[in-house]
Structures are given as structure tokens and as C-alpha cells.
Amino acid sequence: MNTFWVTLSASVIVVLLSIASLPLLNNNANYLKFADLRRSSSEVADLVVTNGTIYTSDDSLPFADSMAISNSRILRVGNYSSIKKLARTLTKELNLHGKIVVPGFIDSHVHFIPGGLQMARVELRGVNTKDLFVEKIRKAVANVKEGSWLLGGGWNNDIWGGDLPMAAWIDSVTPHNPVWLARMDGHMGLANTLALTLAGISRNNENPNGGAIIRNNDGEPTGLLIDSAMKLVLPHIPEASVDERREALLRASSHALKRGVTTVVDFGRYFPGSSPEYPWDDFSDVYRWADLSGNMMTRICLFFPMETWSRLVDLMSKSGRVLSQWIYLGGVKAFADGSLGSNSAFFHEPYADDLNNYGLQVVDLDSLYNMTFSSDKSGLQVSIHAIGDRANDLILDMYASVASDKQIRDRRFRIEHAQHLAPGTVARFGEQSVVASVQPDHLLDDADSASKKLGCERAERGSYLFKSLLTKNAQLAFGSDWPVCDFWISSLYVSVSTRFPVNSFVMCFFCCLFQVADINPLKSIRTSMKRVPPGWEKAWIPSECLCLKDALNAYTISAAHACFLDKYVGSLSPGKYADFVVLSTNSWEDFATEVFANVEATYVGGFKAYSIRPEDKSE
Questions:
Q1: d(CA 45, CA 47)
Q2: Which of 67-71, 104-108, 226-230, 301-305 has the lowest mean pLDDT?
Q3: 504-512 and 112-119 helices, crossing angle to 10°
Q4: What is the sign, positive or negative, of the torsion defined by CA atoms of 336, 392, 269, 509?
Q5: Where are the alpha helices (DSSP H) in 302-356?
Q6: What is the superkingdom listed in this entry's lineage (predicted)?
Q7: pLDDT tens figures, 204-252
Q8: What is d(CA 558, CA 561) in angstroms, rounded to the nearest whole number?
Q9: N or C: which end of the chain has fewer CB within 10 A?
Q10: What are phi and psi of 476, to 5 degrees?
């Protein structure tokens, strides 16, 4: 009997405990359900991109048809079945309708604000009548404040029959604005009467050495100044104002986005002979302003003159390298030589058309070494301009010496341009892990001149060796050098500027008169793959042609690696910013063969920053 009651009591207790525990079990189930919901909510996409051919520049998954974006970053890349799981009611969808998508392009070498300033100039190339010449000036001056200089260039009087322009042509439409318009070759310019007056030029002036003031039959200046006579006007052109430079940044950014460029490496208003303060002024007056005011549209990696390396170290110690999602502090830059076009690139052998000239070493090597050593020791990335084969060897030697301190570090030394290399030099880029920052479109202009200046065999042996560099494991980064093609064509100006202090605004303007290069990655990619200069029927050095994958990578992931931004941009990989470009083609095979495509839309951080169709709303 006692056994029965004990058993019954135990059973009752078990039942009661089970009943009492039901709320706890339910609460635990609810908790687990909430935890699952919370975990899944962290992977909800703001935007899903579907039905396309997405080239990621990520070797772990080179192609996909869909991707998910959340909070400006890539959430997942893959096939649609895996991406659709991340969509919710408020998720937007971008159907690509089979179009190709690539990562946002990174231009590894620009002068961004000078490019924006140049866009505001009067473009007179191709003008073929006096009336059109005057009309272009009339329209342009309507957008310029009274008293401000109107600048432009590119005119060629041969196109309209040979008559040289005169101030009298444009005085009536520019009564309140001084004007300076350079001829296409840079050897001559036209000033209106107001500009002549400001410069103090009258019939009483004598012709300067190496130049001429063109006069009419009465001895009065016509407004045309030749060669060194330009120095009488150029110093009177004022430095660009803060507002003008801010407008230039916005203009340049919009232009870059139209070309699919979402990040640029900006070497700024740093020109030989100009003040090293200009890039710092732009940093504080323009870039900081744009960042704080919400006016940044493209990501910027800034390089500063090497002589200011200690200032950059101080800034980085206070603020770090990443100032915001838009502004990154890159490193320092210096120059080793000039350019091929001006016979100032530094070579081991003399120029074929100037047998006593080996080019110019434009900096004292000891001074350059000391600055490079100090910059590197302080953790800064170093970038040096070198075009001739001897200049490249000198810089590679110096980099090897600086890196021989047994301090193993990821330096990513850069050589800007690396256009002409001696036998054996190519391998050194890979062996020393030096980035070759090159500009494919420059070869379009250099193909003819290189053969004349170096000789055909020498030119073809060592010029623009893109494929050879990659084969020898070099890091290749593509850029444009916008807004100038041959940066050192400015040597013409330097011959004038030695007689008066250099104004960086004038320097930028003068260099930009020869604008050929543009921010246009798709064109540069085609150039690197085809290498056919204007007027040619076949490739120049065809063995150096790249495939599409290598060319795209040089404008994306390799370019990001070259400036230490590969953690943030450069590939469509989870965790990186959702910067991507929608192209006009839906055939990868055709794209890889002919490289004909246009930018249809550019996205920065998952938001549409440019569309070829203005009526499109941002996703």
C-alpha cells in the first residue's frame, strides 16, 4: 500500500513539473525563433542585382549572375537562387536584362582638380571659321563673372584658311573680361585688348628675346604673342579661387562617373616648379569641404609632394589613413626625369634624333634617396615618376637600397609611367614587388615619336611592356594621367617660366592646352588589348597586347592593391563597397574580342550616381 502511494505521488510530481515547465519551453522556443529572425535580418538586402553577367575581379568567384547589397556594401555574390533569399518586402531589384557589370573603375593616376578646371575652358579645336571662333567666345564669356579671365585654346588658323586671329575679332564680345587663347601648338596665343592692357603691352614694348609681339601696319599689337612674348601675359592670370577649385572638383567627379570611374588616385596640382603647398591647399579648401558638406561623389586617394612627407606623417598620426568613406591618404610623390616628347626622359643611350642628349635627371639623387628613406621609414607609400629606361633603373636601385634594412613590410613602392625599360628591368618590378602605374593611352601618341627619337628597334624592344610586366609577376595599375597626355610637353612653358615665378594655375592651364588623355577606362582597356595608334593598321608591339581579364583587373583589383585600397574597393566581393558599372553590352565574348561598350550606369555604394538615361530614378 505504501509502495502504491509513493509511486502515485512521484507520478503526480512529474506531471506537475512538466506542466510547470511548459511556459519555459515555449519561451525558449520563442527566444530561438527571435534569434533566428535577428540573425536573418542582418542579411537583408537593400538592393539585389539580378539577371546579368557580373565580372567580380575576384579570383575566388570570377563570374556571377546576381549580387545583394546592404548598407552600401556587397552582401553576397552568386546565383539568383542564393541571392533571392536575402530579399524582403522593401528590397529593391535591379534587373540587368543580361547586361555586363564590372567593378567601379579606379584611375590610378589623375590630376583631378586641374582636369575639372580644364573642362571650364573654351575648347577651340576643330573651329573652322572666324564666325564660329567668335561665337564660341561669345557663348563662353556669358558664363564667366565680369572681370574674370576667360581661358581656352586649341585653335588652328590653318583650318579656316590661314588668317591669324586678332583681338579685334573678340573685343566687342569680351569688353569686361580679359581673354587668353592659346594656339594648338602652344607657341602662340591671342589676348584681347583688355588682357593686353592689364599686361602693360602697347606699341612701346620691344620684342623679348625668343619671342615676338605681332603688330599691325600702324605698329599696334594685334593681340598675338609668340613664344617667350607669352610671358608678358601669363603671370597676370590669377590663381584659381577656392570656389573655382570646388566647382572643378564637382565637374571632374561628374565626368569621372560618366566614364564608370568611382575611385581616383589624385596627384593633384603638383607640377615641376610649382609650390608644394598647392595640393595641401586643395586638401583643406576643397576635399575637406566636399566631404563635410556631402558633396563628394567619387572616392579619392591623395598623394602629396615628397618634400612635405613629414606633414603627411603628422596628419596620419592624428587622423589615420582613412578620413571617411570618400577620402584616403595615399602617400608621397617625386620626379626622376622628364618625358619622351620633350627629349627629357632619362635614357642609358642618347636620343636617335639628338645624339648628345641622354635626357634629364631632374632631381638630386642623394636628396631623393633621403626623402624616400624617411618617407618609407615613417610608413608612407612612395611613388616616383620615371619614363626613360635609365630613370627606371635608378629608381629601382634606390627602392632596393631603401628596402634592404631587413624590415619586412608591405611597401608597395610605385613607379609612375614606367614607359621605357631596359633589357632585364622588367623582371625587377616583380622581384621587388614594385607597382608599375602605367597609362595605356599614352602609347597612342608615343608610337610614332618613339621610333623617331629612339630608333625602331630600341623603341619596340622596351616600350610599354604591359604583357611582359605581368608575365614577370609585376603589379600593373592602369590610369589616364588626365587631363594631360604628355605631362612634360610643359617643358615649352618651363622655358618661359624660368623668367618669372611659376603660377600653378597657369602651369595647369598651359599643360592642359595639350589635352589628349581623358578619363576613359573602356578606351584605355581597348588600347591595352589592341595597341593600334591612330592611322595605323596593325598593333604596335603586338606581343605586349593584353587579354580582357588582365586589362580589367589593372583598372580594378590591381589598381586598388596599388594604393592600399583593396580592402575597400576593386572587386565585387562581400564586405567591400558596392561600386559597380553597368555596360551597354550583354555579350562577354563580343566584349572580350572587340572591346566596344559604353557606360550605361555607375553605382557608388549601391546608389546610382550616373545613368545614361536621365529619367532613371536611383535604386
A1: 5
A2: 226-230
A3: 70
A4: positive
A5: 309-319
A6: Eukaryota
A7: 999 999 899 999 999 999 999 998 899 899 899 998 899 999 999 999 9
A8: 5
A9: N
A10: -110, 125
Strand, helix or coil at 112?
A: helix
Q: Cα(416)–Cα(335) distance, rounded to whole angstroms?
A: 9
Q: Which residues contact 211 (CB under 8 A, 6 or more apart)?
A: 225, 226, 227, 228, 229, 230, 231
Q: What is the pLDDT of residue 610?
A: 98
Alpha carbon distance 600, 171 (integer Å)? 43
Residues comprising the chain, all counted: 619
Local structure of residue 283 (DSSP, 8 states): I
The dihedrals phi and psi of 12, each to the nearest 5 degrees, come to -60, -45
Number of C-beta neighbours around residue 76 at 10 A? 18
pLDDT at residue 603, rounded to an integer: 98
Residue 350 DSSP code: -
Tell how strand 211-215 and strand 221-227 pair up.
Answer: antiparallel
Distance (Å, whole) CA 334 – CA 272: 9
Residue position matching grid coordinates 607640377: 271
Residue for grid cell 583650318: 159
Residue type, 335: F
CA–centroid distance for 329 within its chain: 15
Cell 597609362 sits at which residue?
439
**Residue 213 is inside which H or E element, if any?**
strand 211-215
| Predicted TM-score (pTM) of this structure | 0.86
